[in-house]
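<derive_structure_tokens>
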Amino acid sequence: MSTLPPRAGRRCHNALNTLHSTVYFSPDLAEQYAALGVDDWSGAYFASRAAAMGAVGPGPVTAAFYNFDHRLIARYLPAVWSTVSPGAALDARLRAADATLRRLLGEAAIASPEMAEAAKLALRATEACTRHSRPLYAAHADLPVPEEPHLAFWHAATLLREHRGDGHMAALLTAGLDPLESVVSHTATGRGMSPRWVMTTRGWVDADLDAARERLRLRGVLDADGELTETGTALRAELEETTDRMDAAPYEHLGAAGVERLTELGRGFLASAASAGAFPDDLIGRG
């Protein structure tokens, strides 16, 4: 039985995951990878996020990332490893995270006691993460913890993000949602990635989205206007509840007071990052 308030772990995850993801929208990531010869956003993204698994090909990455078109991934992997090694890719991502956090949060926040406290709490939560059936988490868990508090915090946020993400992929598979159906149904909640960004970053085209919407209509998940039905709303809620259960251990380990404080700190840093322009204006929404 949980010792935490309802959805406390999810709220904490949402703050840390969103802050972690700032690096993927950052010009600092593009700059670091361009210096290594990877001058395309998709190439930099796949190299930076997959590098913890080693010089893998497109198959494992499609499996682990779940909602990308395999054909897009295969354009970049394994070819990108002839330009940048996994080790160099990880080093470049950490440099980008350093530059991004310093730019978005400011030097005072980077050096603050609150940042050190957030790092300590987040790392404590990761002590209860588990490797089995969690390939992206397990790969990142083998990486060393950076010494500087803001990078240790970002590293811990990465671990917590991938731990929940691996569990969420299992929940999507169990619910019978294929990669694009999972994205389309999430977009329909109004909290998911906009269709333009789905196509730009995930490799899908209009015909793919239309076909996924039709499959979801036939299942009763979407109505004729592309909105979630009662069935669809219940399905998305059940997905999140299932993911919560599979991701409970880190937050139970941290305890209610620790989770509340980590959420507070994470939200504060995230608000500063968002106000500094960390995310595209059209990233989230149905349009």
